[in-house]
Amino acid sequence: MKYKKLTLLAIAGLHLVIQGIHGYSHIVANVQITSLQWIFILLVITIAPLAAVYITWRGNIRKGAGIFALSMLAAFLFGYTLHFVLNSPDLHSNVIGEFNNFFFHSALNLAIIESVGFVFGAYVFAASFDQP
Fold first, then answer.
1. Which DSSP helix (H) or strand (E) runs through 76?
2. What is the pTM of this model?
C-alpha cells in the first residue's frame, strides 16, 4: 500500500513541476490565459491532485485515489483540448516565435503525466476495493 501512496505523491510532484514549466512557456510565448481558465487551473489542476495525495496519506486511499484520478482526467481533457484540438490561442500550432517548440513540448509532457496520473489513480482506486 505504501508504494501506491509514494507513487501517487511522485506523480503529483512531477505533475506540479511540469505544470510550472508549462506555465512558464505560456509567459515566454505570450499565450494569455482567461480568468475562468486560471480558476480551473488553480482548483482542479493544481490543488485537487495535491489534496488527493494528502487524503491518501491520511488513510483514505480509495477516496484520495478517486479524486486524484478524476482531477488528472479533467486536467488531461482541459489541456489536450486547448493545446491540441480547439483553434484557440492555446493551440500549439498557433504559438509563433522562438518559444513554439518549448510550448509544444511542455504541453505534450503535461498531457503524458496527466494520462499516467489518471491511469495509476484509477488503478489504485479500483485495487482499494480488494482491501479490507
1. helix 61-80
2. 0.92
